[in-house]
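Hi everyone, sorry if this is the wrong subforum. Our group has a chain we'd like a structural model of before ordering constructs, and none of us has done structure prediction before. Sequence below.
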Amino acid sequence: MHCPGLFREERMEVLHGLIAAYPLATLITAGRGGLMANLIPFSLHEGGDYGILRAHLARGNKQLEELCEGTEILVVFQGPESYVTPSWYPSKTEHGKVVPTWNFVMVQVRGDARVIKDSGWILAQLEQLTNNREREREYPWKVSDAPEYFIEAQLKGLVGIEISIRSIEGKWKISQNRLSVDHQGVIDGLRAEGGCPAMVALMEQR
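Answer:
Right subforum, don't worry. Here is the predicted structure as C-alpha cells:
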C-alpha cells in the first residue's frame, strides 16, 4: 500500500477500532486461479501479536480452494470516505494552487488462513458477528430467534475461516497534509453540504 508517513496510522487500538466498526471487508487471494476478491463480514478476536479475524464463506465459493491451498491473503477494511473539492480551501483564493482529492481511512491485513468445517465453531462465529451488529438495536435479533432446524440447514452450506494477522497497516488520509485553515475548511464544507458525518468526526479528532 502506498502510504506516506504523514498518513500512516500505527496505533493498534485505532486500527482494531476501524475493523470493529466497519467489518465488511474485501478478502483478496492470489492463487492458481488468479486474483479473487469477495466482500466478507469479519469478526475480530484477541490472539497473537495483532489479533485474529474470523469469518464464514459459502461452501460453493471458489475462493475456498485458494484458502485451502495456503495462498497469500490480503483483507482490506475501508472506513469513512469523502470527496474534497478545492473550493473548501481558503488558500485557494490566495494562490489557486489546489486540486480535488479524496479523504479516506483504511486498514490492510495480511495473514495465514485456516479453513474450519466444524459446525459449532461456525455457529459461534455467526452469533458473534450478529451480536456485534445487533446490540445497539432496541430489540436485538439473535441467531437463536430462528428455528433450530433452519439454522442447522444454513450451517451445512457454510465453511469457517480464521486468519491469524501477520501484519496490519493503516492509512488515515484526512487532510492532515493541509494548512490548518484548509483542514478546517474541509470540515466546514462537509458540514455545510451534508457530507459524511463520520469523516467530520475523524477530522476533528486530529
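For your construct planning: The chain has one domain: 5-83+101-174. The mean pLDDT is 93.
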